[in-house]
Amino acid sequence: xxxVSPRQRTVITLVVMVSTIMQLLDTTIVNVALPHMKGQLxxxxxxxxxxxxxxxxxxxxxxxxxxxxxxxxGLRAYLLVSIAGFTLTSAxxxxxxxxDQIVLFRILQGILGAAxxxxxxxxxxxxxxxxxxxxxxxxxGVGIMAGPILGPSLGGWLTESWSWHWTFFINVPIGIxxxxxxxxxxxxxxxxxxxxxxxxxxxxxIAVAGLQLILDLGERHDWLDSNLIRSLLVVSLAGLAGFVxxxxxxxxxxxxxxxxxxxxxxxxxxxxxxxxxLGFYGATLLVPLMLVGSLGFSPMVTGFLLAPRxxxxxxxxxxxxxxxxxxxGRLLVAAGTLIIAAGSYPMTxxxxxxxxxxxxxxxxxxxxxxxxxxVPLSTMAYRTLxxxxxxxxxxxxxxxxxxxxxxxxxxxSAFTARHAQMxxxxxxxxxxxxxxxxxxxxxxxxxxxxxxESWRVLAGLVEQQGQMVAYVDxxxxxxxxxxxxxxxxxxxxxxxxxxxxxxxxxxxxDSH
Length: 512
Prior knowledge:
Layout: H1 6-25, H2 34-41, H3 45-48, H4 50-62, H5 66-73, H6 75-95, H7 99-113, H8 116-127, H9 133-161, H10 166-169, H11 171-185, H12 198-217, H13 227-249, H14 264-294, H15 299-323, H16 329-344, H17 356-380, H18 390-429, H19 436-445, H20 453-483, H21 485-488
């Protein structure tokens, strides 16, 4: 039964897509502003990092509760509360004058906005019939992929043109507008009584918070060489083990039904999306660092060079949505993986003479592949799930996707740091003060071979070359990660087109 009019459906789709972009934008838009915030708030580099960590940890803990609150108060009410809370806390973050204030408000922002992404996906799944599900996930995918890509560019522009406060204030007018649109168009939704599984929530929070803190603090504390990181690992694993044990023995109303992991397609989609986000977020981190730190581009130019990847991702996402009803989703994912590999390969040959065009074109090719991967995975993940499990599955799927990005950033940050150190040692070992080439370089550069100036310059050049070698090694690693997705496609088992379990989620959206 048609729950809403076509006009309502269009507006609701716009609302949830903008909500998704707004929430994900805040995971990256603040990155560029951190140096400015550090000076104004009088914080050390380690202290200011809590502006990011607090938001990500809080959001990760509360994201799996999407199914619970959706059942208790309904999709409409929960979306309105989430948008209003996220908008209000964004304003409070912009008004903060101390580090303690902004960390507190970022925690609240993460808690209240945690459900925006899974709620958006859940609403689109219920709003569109199964034959149009690919189109719905394409629209949702635009927000998922565009948010992290556009965040650094928009953050850099707002910080340079206005101030770091506007990286938060930008959410206020947008949040008010989409709240009004959601209130006017989203129909009432059914609810059901559920009791909160406080034990399960506490165990899950311990596991998720511990892992996220390990990923955020590991590089600064030298990973497992640190007592802090080892302690966090033990606590996180204990929380995870306790959560699984509790969930398997829980009768009614567990935090979320672990039975979703018995669905083969859902597990396959989770594995693939984790692998994809590992490479995607890793590249999103490394490419700007390389452009600004090693190639000397300004933040504005860097944003300009990265923006085309976002546009091609949007195009391929919409294309994938149209193809989903006619082409096996596994073929689209395979094609997207090969396209990303083709775009990643030129990056393995980058050097200090790399031109802007050589950066832009591979990024655009990667963007084409990303859309072809993300949309089919977001559709196939729920295709064989029972309808009553979809709300909880969207929260878990979003959490694992988010954690996959954190894992990717942590792995590639550590990988790049280690390889930069190794490359520096190898390059430094090849510099001999008696080598004719060194003397020729000193004469050609006009630097005094007897003084220390030439050695200082040379040390800087060696460090710069070593860092570039590390970036190239990391891009090679990312290429391998994406290719590992291909064999995982064999795990999928798609149902017949005319009889899909979980295809019809039921009359979830009731008209007024």
